[in-house]
Write a structure and sequence with these properties.
The protein is mainly beta and about 170 residues long. The chain has two domains: about 1-85, 2-Layer Sandwich (Glycoprotein, Type 4 Pilin); about 95-165, RNA polymerase II/Efflux pump adaptor protein, barrel-sandwich hybrid domain (OB fold (Dihydrolipoamide Acetyltransferase, E2P)). Helix content is about 5%, strand content about 60%. It is built from one helix and 16 strands. It has one helix at about 85-90, and strands at about 1-5, 10-20, 20-25, 30-40, 45-50, 50-60, 65-70, 75-80, 100, 105-110, 120, 125-130, 135-140, 145-150, 155, 160-165. It has an eight-stranded antiparallel beta barrel with strand order 1-2-3-4-5-6-7-8. A four-stranded antiparallel β-sheet has the order 9-16-14-11, with no helix packed on it. A hairpin with a 2-residue loop joins β5 and β6. It is elongated.
Amino acid sequence: MKYEIEIDGENFEIDLTERDGKFIYQFPDGERGEISLKELNKGEFFLKRGSKNYHFYSAKKGNGGEIVISHGNCTYEIKVSDYRSKILKKISGVEENVNKVLAPMPGKIVSVNISEGEEVEKNSVLLVMEAMKMENLIKSPRSGKIKKVYVKGGDSVEAKAILVEFFEE
C-alpha cells in the first residue's frame, strides 16, 4: 500500500507491504528493501533495515494520528496517511465545512440513520452503505442541520452520488 509520511514537515512517499512478519518497502526513487520491526516493550521498538539496527521509542501525539519517535538524542514528529484513505475522504466530501456528503464508491444503502431537518453532530453515523461486501459507516463531516437526504435503505448508488446535503452555515 502506498503511504505518505510527513517527518518534521518534510513529505515522503513509500510503498509498504507486509509479508511473513516483515515489511517490504519501495521509495519513489526505486530503492527497495526489507524492514523487520519488533516491539520490545510498550512504545519501545527495535527495527532492522538491511545491516542497520535502530532502537527507538514511539508515542502518539494528539488525536490526529501524529506520533513522536525518539532515537538517540533526536526526536521526530511523524504523520502517516495512506492514499486510499485520502482518496476516500476527498471523493466522499469528508472535509470541514462541506455541505454535501458523496458516496465514496458504488454500493447499496443498508440503512439511513437521519432525517431531513435533524441536527447532527460531527462524526455521527449518517447512513450505512454496503460496498465490496463490506458495510461502511458514512459519518458526518461536521455538525449541522440536514437539508436533504437523497437516498433510502435498499437504494443502489454510484461513486460520487450525493447522499446527504446540509443547510449552509
